[in-house]
Amino acid sequence: MIDQYLGEIRDIHIQKDPMRFRENIQRLGEVFAIEIGKTLSFTPTEITTPLGTITVPQISQQPVLATILRAGLPMHQGMLRIFDRAENAFISAFRKYREDHSFDIEFEYMSSPSLDDKVVILTDPMLASGMSMEVSYLGLLARGLPAHIHLVSIIGSKQGVAYISEKITSPDVTLWLGAVDEELNAFSYIVPGLGDAGDLAYGAKVDSR
Questions:
Q1: Gap between the Cα atoms of 176 and 123, Å rounded
Q2: What is the CATH number of the domain that holds 116?
Q3: Is residue 97 situated within a structural domain?
């Protein structure tokens, strides 16, 4: 099903429907959430029904869902459909381009609960250069020491995966990807990728380059 949804969000014809694009990103968020849920701790809990009681495994501690604005919002919403009692964190980070097309990541703002001893799931649909994910990861560590961090992207580049693997070496970090594409273009967009996920979901923005 990941491949099914990936095929649709990459397709230039289906991309013309922003609602369909957002829905497919949300669906991918749900699929990743279910898979990550298999790694979480569960506690047997006695539940009372109208006709009796039953012991059912329940998540021992809800994760914290974090995302990078704005492209990460549909994926975050998909995660929240599954982990519907999770705490949430939001990160404002963006590329600030130079004339030669190189760029720095500007970290502006974060809204987050304490992350001490919690499982954190950080989503960003595209892992291109890997710099946004690294900056956001470091920002999260300023809010506490999580028990584990899951980094989740729908599409990554080989360069971005190599960058994250080099910069984030903690055994308490897991990287999840739906697909890995071959290259980045001159503007560090993934090729073949799918284009600008934020623009496709919410409309074109004024070019900050």
A1: 9
A2: 3.40.50.2020
A3: yes
Q: Is 28 helix (H, G, I), strand (E, B) or coil?
A: helix
Q: How far apart are CA 149 and CA 36, in angstroms?
A: 11
Residue 137 lies in a domain: yes
Asked if 167 contacts 160 with a C-beta cutoff of 8 angstroms, the reply is no
Angstrom distance (rounded) from CA 48 to CA 34: 25
User: How far apart are the C-alpha atoms of 117 and 102, rounded to whole Å?
Assistant: 37
194 sits in which H/E element: none
Instruction: Tell me, yes or no, whether 49 lies in a domain.
Output: no
DSSP reduced 3-state for 131: helix
pLDDT tens track for 158-208:
999 999 999 999 999 999 999 999 999 988 889 999 999 999 999 987 765
Q: Which residues contact 33 (CB under 8 A, 6 or more apart)?
A: 78, 79, 81, 82, 83, 121
Q: Which tokens sit at 96?
A: 């600030």
Q: Which domain holds residue 77?
A: 2-44+54-202
Is 207 among the domain residues? Answer: no
Instruction: Read off the pLDDT of residues 108-155 as tens digits, 9 standing for 90 and up.
Output: 788 999 999 999 999 999 999 999 999 999 999 988 999 999 999 999
> Taking a C-beta distance cutoff of 8 angstroms, is the pair 120, 63 a contact?
yes
**Domains in the chain, number:** 1
List C-alpha distances in Å: 162 to 29, 125, 134, 198: 23, 17, 12, 24
Which amino acid type is present at position 42? F
